[in-house]
Amino acid sequence: MTQDNYPALALRLHHQGVATVELTVDTQGQLANCRIAISTGWQELDDATCAMIRARARYAPARDDAGQPLAYVYRLRFRWVLPGSQPPTLPPDTELDLNVAAFPKDMVRPIAGLTFIVAPDGKIESCSVPERQSSGSPALDKAGCAAMSKSETFQPALDGDGRPMRFMRVQQVGFTIDRPK
To answer: What's the CA gap between 110 and 173, in Å, rounded?
Structure first.
């Protein structure tokens, strides 16, 4: 991104920020929806975020275990930083934090990236943790999947005719140690 991409009003007012965006990609690999999940705090930056993503981003559909195309939903953060400014350091973007009694010895990092299939009714059908997204601890990864499957129901992704459809979702779960009160 260059200064030419920065919204003129935001430049004049010295607005910057980080938007968390939720994207839905359909079974043909087309961007079906771009939604600001967490605002930058500035409407012109939020509007420009989805406009830029729609204009520039290219996708391929997700695939299930049988190789069939699936829609997918994922989140990303988009930073708007004024020219000459230092970009902020961002903490991990976790959508769920789980308390555990202690970290297992095999844990490499206190975050796992979950990949799950969501049925048209919004319930999780299956959950896995790709090796590159693992916490390093199979027990923590399994706990993350179990917690998501037990507690989460998602708003269904809709096809072009507005019907709910099966989709893949990628989400970060963070692990923290349960501190005595």
So the answer is: 9
